[in-house]
């Protein structure tokens, strides 16, 4: 069975109110995921967001880990260049110990300038800082003393304690550019596919990733992220898809899409319809339709892990989100 993780909405209201309620809702979702066959629960991060976007995915993973007993918890993704690598190694080790090995770390290099501005980090340094973070984490968790005497960090012969519960915690890396995919193969234990690109784009990237893994002697591990809109039928899912479309329009306006046979001909965001955006991209419909669509991804991409997103800033409301989690867990996950 393909393991499935859940990716919650980390935004409160447009003006950032009721963050406490958002966290309560997330914890309720996590507990339901644990009861409904989900393997993991993962957080991302952004900063300086007016909508109260939760900025600390490591902390949130720890909170969920403390409220669950089986569910894996982690980041997808934490922005590696924004962290001091020793602090990140320590925090992750503590959560891994507290959850008895249920912590999973996925990192990315970041892409929004406001995130870097919040920490006074030059985005041009993000690749170097990310690779140094990977190196420090691996050595620290292996029990080695770590040092960095560069323009970014100054520390020497530091011991990171405590050690993680896992003997060798893996680190995934998210990327959607050609250099990024190659970097994932070279330095990471898995590659996270963004939820935006279509199957044809992902196929090219996946082939490249597996080729690069073979070159460096790493076993490939593909984590596929997808947006899911579940309903009683494809038609009902289309009617429920507006919150998902709001997010996808934002991606389009910010140039996130790799041109493909569907998106490539769309010249304006006002022309980005659900039918165009959903083709080979959004998993939607009833359980049968969803299983059929995911079957294509399994056949063509052959993912090792799946993370789904079903709630966005625009909705659905909490009760519907819980119903969707339950329905996907009961009707889809057992057949993957």
Radius of gyration equals 19 Å
Distance between the termini: 5 Å
Structural class assignment: alpha/beta
CATH class term: Alpha Beta
Estimated share of beta-strand residues: 15-25%
Biggest sheet layout: 8 strands, parallel, barrel
Order of helices and strands: EHEHEEHEHHEEEHEHEHHHEHEH
Spatially, the strands of the biggest sheet line up as 1-2-3-5-8-9-10-12
Helix content: 40-55%
CATH superfamily: Luciferase-like domain
Mind explaining what this structure looks like?
With 336 residues, the protein is α/β, with parallel strands linked by helices. It has a single domain, classed as TIM Barrel. Helix content is 42%, strand content 16%. Strands 1-2-3-5-8-9-10-12 form an 8-stranded parallel beta barrel, surrounded by 6 helices. A two-stranded antiparallel sheet has the order 6-7. Helix 6 links the parallel strand 8 and strand 9. Helix 3 packs across helix 5 and helix 6 runs parallel beside helix 7. It is globular and about 60 Å long. It starts with a strand and ends in a 5-residue tail after the last helix. The model has no long low-confidence stretch (mean pLDDT 96).
Name some characteristics of this structure.
336 residues, 16% strand, single chain, TIM Barrel, 12 helices, alpha/beta, 12 strands
Secondary-structure map with pairings?
Blueprint: E1 4-6, H1 19-35, E2 40-43, H2 57-67, E3 72-75, E4 78-79, H3 85-98, E5 103-108, H4 113-117, H5 126-141, E6 146-149, E7 154-158, E8 171-174, H6 178-187, E9 190-193, H7 199-216, E10 222-230, H8 234-239, H9 242-253, H10 274-278, E11 283-285, H11 287-300, E12 305-309, H12 318-331
Helix pairs in contact: 1-12, 2-3, 3-5, 6-7
